[in-house]
Structures are given as structure tokens and as C-alpha cells.
From TrEMBL:
One of its GO terms (molecular function) is NAD(P)H dehydrogenase (quinone) activity. This is NAD(P)H-dependent oxidoreductase. Keywords: Oxidoreductase. InterPro entries: Flavodoxin_fold (IPR003680), Flavoprotein-like_sf (IPR029039), NAD(P)H_dehydrogenase_qn (IPR051545). Pfam families: Flavodoxin_2. It comes from the Bacteria. The keyword Repressor does not apply. Residues 1-213 form the Flavodoxin-like fold domain. GO terms for cellular component: cytosol. Belongs to the NAD(P)H dehydrogenase (quinone) family.
Length: 259
């Protein structure tokens, strides 16, 4: 497989950095090819502005529309084009970051904002006129694994934990970014109590990461319902007979996990 590893942590000597090193070694041992985007080392600019699209100053910036024009005409800034080429090359993405304030660091959010422009990450239609998203799109067929280090204990992310179920905490990334763009999101790899981890905890986490990478190509993705698979009505609301009487994010899981 060809894997793009997106890494977003400012300290390479952190637990996150050590796991990144272990993960890349594992990919090499398994015979995979990989490329890496180390966002802090790259000094990645996370801020969307008109320079991304070579737009003249003084014009009103309509981000979605202008990003689509720039993408189709080849006017996107070189740093954005380089990241898109890496994604197109890859069979799978590993997106590694510490959980800060219930989401990824700003530099990673900015990478998503700038790279997944209209025409590349969204805003596509099929030959029949259907909008291609939530299970379909240009990035269809690629796998995506979030690898996350978390300060909180695992119990605090349980069904009754104060932080909520971890898959739901990451719903904006797993469903709203990976699945929205057509990728197949896998259950995240999570290391809890990361800021209190010692050598035994690192070894356990490294062993689990190696196992997840060994099955990267075969693990069943999270079974989210596809937008165009017949489960949603014309207003993109789940049809009444599915997950009947229930609400919440779990209703967007197919019968294998939800109904």
C-alpha cells in the first residue's frame, strides 16, 4: 500500500512523536511505501486567504467558489497542490494528532481547510446529477485512520463518561471530513492518559499501533450510511423506518451497528 502520514504535534520527542516513528518503521517493515506531511516541521500555514487562489486584492473572496475555480484552472498555491498530489498518490491516510479541546490542533484543521477545496474534497456531482459526498467522491476507495493521543482516561470517554463516546467526539473528522469526501474511515487508534504514560504504556501503545497498521488494508470501515444509498430522503433526513424512534449520531450507522 501507499500511505500518507499526516503528523500534527509540535514536539517530536513526545509520546505522539515516538509513536509516529514506530508507525513509520512498521510501514517499512511491512513493505509499504509512505510519504509524510509533518505539519509543524513544514511550518504549514493553516490560514485560508486569497493568496491560496491567486486572487487579486480588492475582489470579494467567496472561498468555495474561488477555490473551485483555482483548482480547475491550476491556480492553487504550490503548497496546497503538493498536499493534494500526496493524497491522490496514497491508498490510505494516517492522520495523527493530540486531541486538544475536543478536536485536532489548529494547524491540522487548517490543513484540511486549505487542502480539501471545492472540486477536490467536495462539490462534485455524478453523471446522473447526484451530489457525491458521504461515501462517494474523488477520494472514494481510500482508507483513513485517525491516530490520536488523549490526556483523559478511557473511562471518561465511555457511554456515560463526561466526555462522551470517543467516536462521537471525533464525528466531525470521521464522518464530516473522511466519509464526506468519499474515504472509508476506520475506527480510530486512541492512546488515553498520554501525558502520564511511561515506558510500559508506550510499549503497549506501540504494539497496538503495529497491529492496526498490519490490518490497515483489511479492517472493516465504520459502517456509516451513504448519502445516496437510499437511507435518506430528499432533505437528507434519515427515513422514519430506520433507527425508528431514536435520535443522535448513532442513527447514521448502518444496520450492522445501529438498526
Amino acid at each position: 500500500m501507499k500511505i500518507l502520514w499526516i503528523y500534527a504535534h509540535p514536539e517530536p520527542r513526545s509520546l505522539t512523536g515516538s509513536l509516529r516513528d514506530e508507525g513509520l518503521r512498521t510501514l517499512t517493515e511491512l513493505g509499504h511505501e509512505y510519504r509524510q506531511s509533518d505539519l509543524y516541521a513544514m511550518r504549514w500555514n493553516p490560514v485560508v486567504d486569497r493568496a491560496d487562489y491567486a486572487q487579486d486584492a480588492g475582489e470579494r473572496l467567496l472561498v468555495a467558489a474561488e477555490s473551485a475555480v483555482a483548482y480547475e484552472s491550476g491556480r492553487l498555491s504550490p503548497d496546497i497542490r503538493a498536499e493534494q498530489e500526496k493524497i491522490e498518490w496514497a491508498d490510505a491516510l494516517v492522520v495523527q494528532f493530540p486531541l486538544w479541546w475536543y478536536g485536532p490542533p489548529a494547524i491540522l484543521k487548517g490543513w484540511i481547510d486549505r487542502v480539501f477545496v471545492k472540486g477536490f474534497g467536495y462539490g462534485l456531482t455524478g453523471e446522473d446529477g447526484r451530489v457525491l459526498r458521504y461515501g462517494e467522491g474523488k477520494l472514494g476507495g481510500k482508507r483513513a485512520l485517525a491516530a490520536v493521543t488523549v490526556g483523559g482516561r478511557s473511562s471518561t470517554f465511555g457511554p456515560r463518561g463526561v466526555n462522551g463516546p470517543f467516536e462521537q467526539v471525533l464525528f466531525p473528522l470521521l464522518h464530516g471530513t473522511f466519509f464526506y469526501t468519499g474515504m472509508s474511515p476506520l475506527l480510530p487508534f486512541v492512546v488515553h492518559s498520554a501525558d502520564r504514560a511511561g515506558a510500559p504504556e508506550f510499549e503497549a501503545a506501540a504494539k497496538e499501533l503495529r497491529a492496526r497498521l498490519e490490518t490497515l488494508a483489511t479492517t472493516e470501515p465504520i459502517p456509516f450510511r451513504t448519502q445516496n444509498g437510499g437511507d435518506y430522503d430528499v432533505d437528507l433526513v434519515l427515513k422514519p423506518h430506520l433507527a425508528a424512534g431514536r435520535t443522535g449520531l448513532d442513527v447514521h450507522l448502518s444496520a450492522k451497528r445501529s438498526d
